[in-house]
Design goal:
With 232 residues, the chain is an alpha/beta fold. It is 35% helix and 17% strand. It has 8 helices and 8 strands. The longest helix is centred in the middle third of the chain and has 16 residues.
Length: 232
């Protein structure tokens, strides 16, 4: 198991054997650590789904790249759309692969959606291909301030400690008065509370629980905006 002892449910093509393979715990591991059996069973269920061809090659997600002053959704209308719903706001950043506090840290995009929805909107930030001017980004984050600082409106991210601080750092780069989101739910912590013995990574949880495909990009490199948006 190349994951260092954790079930990954990640499939790959073996050139040596000429077939698709998937990493998982050895069945005997569940005898020595019975609490890991549930995660192992999820991996086996995923292997069966792969064998039946039920897993797509790319994420079957609906997403749109928010643009400046274009329909159906532009950066000026997005805060209004989010304000009309009472569901939690979900966010996720794609950024340079360094700490959020580093002077060279720059956010490429931020994904914004509503909990329970299968679609999301991607806001281009400091990606080289972004056509959204800084003044429009400043206006967007100012319009988002009431929603993001309202303690009664839940926000969520898989690792909210990072995404909340990434939001603060982004507003710090764009606004005179940066602000930190309140009432931020961390699904990483919630997944641990539900089962402390299974892997906590977003990709494993997505693959095992929601049937996400084994699609990934190298997040340490800058990719075209369309590819970054799909990953986001």
């Amino acid at each position: 198991d190349p994951s260092g002892g954790h079930a990954t449910a990640r499939a790959f093509t073996s050139e040596r054997y000429g077939c698709r393979m998937m990493t998982a715990l050895h069945p005997a591991a569940t005898l020595y650590a019975p609490r890991r059996k549930d995660a192992w069973l999820l991996d086996i269920a995923r292997f069966c789904a792969l064998a039946r061809g039920e897993v797509a090659e790319k994420p079957p997600v609906l997403h749109g790249i928010v643009t400046h002053m274009t329909s159906p959704v532009d950066i000026q209308s997005l805060p209004t759309i989010l304000a009309k719903s009472t569901r939690p706001i979900v966010i996720d950043f794609e950024a340079t692969p360094i700490e959020w506090w580093h002077r060279d840290w720059r956010p490429y995009t931020v994904g914004v959606g509503l909990a329970g929805s299968s679609s999301g909107l991607i806001v281009p930030l400091m990606h080289p291909e972004s056509s959204v001017p800084n003044w429009a980004l400043q206006q967007f984050f100012e319009q988002m301030r009431p929603l993001m600082t309202d303690p009664k409106r839940l926000k969520a991210a898989h690792y909210s400690m990072y995404d909340a601080l990434a939001w603060w750092r982004t507003t710090q780069l764009l606004l005179k008065e940066p602000y930190l989101p309140e009432s931020m739910v961390c699904t990483l912590s919630l997944s641990h509370l539900l089962d402390e013995n299974r892997p906590k990574g977003l990709k494993w949880l997505g693959r095992a629980l929601y049937g996400w495909p084994d699609w990934d990009i190298d997040a340490t490199k800058l990719h075209p905006l369309a590819e970054t948006a799909l990953y986001n």
